[in-house]
Every structure is written in C-alpha cells, then in structure tokens.
Specification:
Blueprint: H1 2-5, H2 8-11, H3 13-25, H4 47-54, H5 56-59, H6 64-83, H7 86-94, H8 99-131, H9 134-154, H10 177-180, H11 182-201, H12 205-223, E1 237-243, H13 257-270, E2 278-279, E3 302-305, H14 317-330, E4 334-344, E5 347-357, E6 363-368, E7 406-409, E8 412-418, H15 425-433, E9 438-443, H16 453-468, E10 472-476, E11 482-484, E12 490-493, E13 500-506, H17 514-518, H18 521-544
Length: about 550
C-alpha cells in the first residue's frame, strides 16, 4: 500500500483531479434520466482528491498546500465542464452567440465555480498540516464540503447539482432532506468518501481491511435505499398540465388566425382530464398509456400552462378574454406563464410572471419571478460583457419580483415558482412556510435541448418536494412535464417535445417540515465548524512558522 500511495500517479494533481471529475459526473444525469444504481458512484467520487491530497507522497512536498488546492481546483473545473456542457448549446444554438464566445462562457463559468473545489483541497491540506494527522483532516471533510456547497448557493448563487442530488431516488437517504435539506445527504456521502480514503491511507493492513469493510457496509447499506418502495401518496384532486411545445428560438408573436389556432388548441388540451401519460419518468423507450376514462369527465381542480415563448401579456385584452373563456370551460383556477408589467414613473418594468386566475375568470394576482437566470433573463455586468446581450434580445431584460406569494382558490393554497428557481431550496421552502398546500413549477426547459440539463433540473425540483413534504405539479413547455409526490417520485409524466396535456392526481399537504420552518441551519452549522477549523489551523501554522533572528 505504501508503494501504491507513493506511485507517481498520486503525485500528479492532474491525475487525481481529473479522476474525481470523471467519477463525479457519473451519479448525475448525462443525456437522459439517470439509472438509480449510478448514484452508488457518489460514495467514492471525491476519493481521488482525498487520497491525492493526504497521500504521503504529496504531504512530504514543500509545496504541499499549493498542490493540494491545484489538484482539487483542476477536478472542479473539469467536473463543471462535464456536468454543465449544455451551457454551450444553450448559448450558441438558442442564444445566438458564436461558438467561440459560447465556449468562453462555459469555460469562465467552470473556472469560477471550480474555485470551491480548490478551496476544499486547500482546507483539507491545511487541516492535515496543522493537526499533523490525516485522521482529523478526514473527520473534517464532510463539514468542509457542506460549508462550501452552502457558500456556492449564497455567494455565486449557483447551487447546481450539489452532491446530495445524486441520491434523489434513494428513499433511505432522502429521509434526511425534510430536516437538513439536500446538505444532510451530501454530508453522509462525504462521510462515506472519507471512510474509503481512511481505508487506503491506514496502516497496518488489518486496519485497512477493517475500515474498508466498514465503508462498504455503511455505503452499501444506505445505497439499498434505491430498492425501497414507500407507500403511494394519496391523491384527492386532478390537475391538467399543458405542454405547449413551442420553439424557443422562433417568433411567437401571433396575429389573427395564428392566435385563434394556438389558443383554441391549448384550451382543448386543458379540458382533457383523462389522456395519454407515462407512469414514472419518460425514458427513451417509454410508451404512453391511456388510463380508464370516466364519463362524463370530471372537471379539473387546477389547470397549469407553462412558462413558454407564447405572447401572453397580462395587459393584453385578448389574453384576458382567453383566460375568461378557459376558466368558464374548466370551472377551475388557472396558473399560466405570462409577461407582467408595472409602471415605475416613466419606466415600464417587465417581469417573467405566473398569473393566477380564479374559477370565475378574475385575475387574482400574479407571482413575479425573483431569481432570474443570468444571460437568459438579464445580463450581469452588461457593460463589461457586451457580446452576451444578444442572448436576451428576444426576451428583453426582466426586473426582479419581490414577494413569494401564495394564492388561494376553492379553499386550497398554491405556491408557484418559475423555472430556475426550483434549484434554490431555501427560497422554495418559503412558499410552504407561507401556507402553500401544493407547489406548481412552470418552466421552459426548451432552452436546454436534448442535453442533461432537463433531467438535472427535474431531479432538483424533486428534492424540493421531499424537503417540504409537498406535491409538485410541473408544467413545462417541452418537458419534463410531470407530477412529483412528497417522496420525490415522478408518478406520471408526459412525452417530451410534443404538444400534449397531462392529467394527474395530486394531494394537498398543510404540515411543515423542520426544513420548511428553519431552512439551512444544518448547513450553517457545518459552515461554523468549517470556519472554526480553518481559524484553528491558521493559528497553529502561524505559531509553527520559524521566526527570523
């Protein structure tokens, strides 16, 4: 084992950094829905970095700390390039940006977010040097990792595919989410990675076997959660989720017959409370089934139209007449993606909005999207990166909303969040905290094309259902349109890239979880411990520094 740890492969930060990137890419969707078994790779995905940093061949070097940070940073940059490769297609194909500039945006994104991995390697190396023990460094690893995931969600505000999402299909591990959020799952996974690292670093051989077997039992036992089948969540209502399937890069300013043709089709789809659906996730070869229909068809309890390029504007008389017609036909509340406006003096602000229309056709209110997509709905630092302005030329620049509103109709309350907002756990929980009994997520994932992004996005939305013990009704423009139960399971979904509607059963929940009430206290606690360990390590190293005569 000593010879193994002294191997030149471990002496190269490039080797263990890139090995981590490749392993870490496997437990996340790559080009379609991820088989649950691949989540098992998450238990060893960070192992190359841990062993590379703590191996004697690295620790004994004078540039130990610098090389540790470099190797981890290489791993982070490479992982973001692999995991978020879809950014290139979004920018180039749909944003109208040239291939060189699109590649530059993806590379810049990866270089910036890879810093968190670099800091992780730095913290582990500092702990190893200050405490003089790889054992204490490994004990701190889960705290460091969660602290940095939390920092990514609050500083750069891109908490995309945090480690815990790899276990969204693991019923045992996701029981942590209603208490700790996704961070608790990341913590347990890093405990497993640390146990396997300890097995490779320990001496003598007997101790390595004991630690290795312990790691296998720990990770293997918890990974069996992918085989667990919780009881089905009861349904008491029916929603119709319309999938409009409009081209995101085409001109959708409809006039006359075009408006009538599109909207009449959407209304017709909204009346179908019994239609083709896929049980569970829509895989590459999934076939839609037609459930037994009841005549006369029951009225839906809710109709949801997605965020899409449809030219629906709150102030447009045609749109208001359309909503009046729709609610008259369905006799149910309607949630529809549209463009909202607000007059601020001489300036008209526009918002990416979700309109809530009561069963009697009244416009009760709207939710204005708070968390906008950079380079999609606004251009950050526009004066510095003028080339990115072409990405938003079709949708203009949106203003941010300010309130997480909850809407009530027929005695039930609904919380609506739009597209990218589903990845922000601490923001979504406020809808349940404010009284929402069911979540409605409208989205336009057509910008992602047939990449990994729609599936990654769906899995993050599924975690929001688990954290808050709520059904999520997800209406999208091109898919994945689906119903998600409070255990995070996709109960029914619609085929992608077709104009269709999905009639699904769902239920209402009024209780609140610990996470709903208190948010990211677990992650904050890990951050406090991580900062404390960093401060102590820095103090020890300063005291150990030889003083000049």
């Amino acid at each position: 084992m000593r010879r193994f740890l002294a191997n030149r492969l471990l002496a190269s930060p490039w080797t263990w950094g890139l090995a981590t990137a490749l392993l870490l890419d496997l437990p996340f969707p790559i080009a379609g829905p991820m088989p649950p078994w691949r989540g098992a790779v998450a238990w060893v995905a960070i192992l190359p970095i841990l062993v590379g940093v703590l191996a004697p061949v690295n620790v004994e070097r004078k540039d130990f700390i610098r090389r540790s940070a470099l190797g981890a940073y290489i791993g982070g940059v490479a992982w973001y390039l692999l995991n978020c490769y879809w950014i290139y297609a979004t920018m180039h194909i749909y944003g109208g940006i040239g291939p060189v500039a699109s590649s530059g945006i993806l590379l810049l994104y990866s270089l910036v977010l890879g810093i968190y991995f670099g800091v992780f390697g730095l913290l582990v190396a500092l702990a190893r040097k200050a405490f003089g023990s790889w054992k204490i460094a490994l004990l701190l690893v889960p705290f460091f990792w969660v602290a940095l995931e939390f920092a990514a969600s609050r500083i750069t505000r891109v908490p995309w595919d945090q480690l815990g999402y790899s276990q969204v299909d693991n019923f045992l591990l996701t029981r942590l989410a209603p208490v700790t959020g996704v961070y608790g799952i990341s913590f347990v996974l890093m405990v497993g990675n640390a146990m396997f690292a300890a097995a490779l670093l320990a001496c003598p051989a007997r101790r390595r076997w004991v630690l290795g077997c312990g790691g296998v039992l720990f990770a293997g036992g918890l990974q069996l959660g992918v085989l667990a089948t919780p009881p089905a969540s009861p349904t008491t209502a029916i929603a119709v989720l319309v999938q409009q399937n409009l081209d995101v890069d085409s001109n959708n300013d409809w006039f006359g017959p075009e408006w009538d043709s599109h909207t009449s089709e959407f209304v017709k789809r909204s009346l179908r409370t019994c239609g083709p659906a896929i049980r569970g996730m829509p895989g590459p070869h999934s076939a839609a089934s037609l459930p037994q229909c009841v005549e006369p068809a029951p009225k839906p309890d809710l109709v949801a139209w997605p965020e899409s390029p449809a030219p629906f504007r709150e102030a447009d008389p045609r749109f208001r007449r359309l909503m009046k017609e729709l609610t008259s036909e369905t006799q149910s509340p309607v949630i529809v993606g549209n463009i909202g406006t607000w007059q601020n003096g001489a300036v008209t602000e526009i918002f990416n909005s979700a309109e809530f229309v009561a069963p009697d056709g009244r416009f009760v209110g709207r939710y204005d999207k708070i968390h906008l997509v950079p380079f999609g709905e606004y251009v950050p630092y526009k004066g510095l990166i003028a080339f990115a302005g072409t990405l938003t030329q079709g949708v203009s620049s949106f203003s941010r909303g300010g309130l997480r509103k909850v809407f009530t109709a027929n005695g039930h309350s609904y919380g609506v969040f739009i597209c990218y907002e589903s990845v922000f756990a601490d923001e979504v929980r406020h809808f349940a905290k404010n009284g929402a009994e069911v979540f409605v997520n409208i989205s336009d994932d057509g910008w992602y094309g047939d990449t990994s992004a729609p599936w990654q996005h769906l899995n993050m939305a599924r975690m929001r259902a688990i954290e808050n013990d709520r059904w999520i009704l997800r209406a999208t423009n091109t898919g994945v349109t689906a119903a998600i139960d409070p255990d995070g399971r996709v109960t029914w979904s619609a085929p992608r890239h077709v104009l269709t509607s999905l009639a699904v059963g769902y239920g209402y929940r009024s209780g609140t979880t610990f996470y709903t009430r208190f948010g990211d206290v677990f992650a904050i606690g890990c951050g406090i411990i991580g900062i404390g360990a960093l401060a102590f390590s820095a103090l020890v190293l300063v005291r150990q520094r030889p003083r000049s005569a």
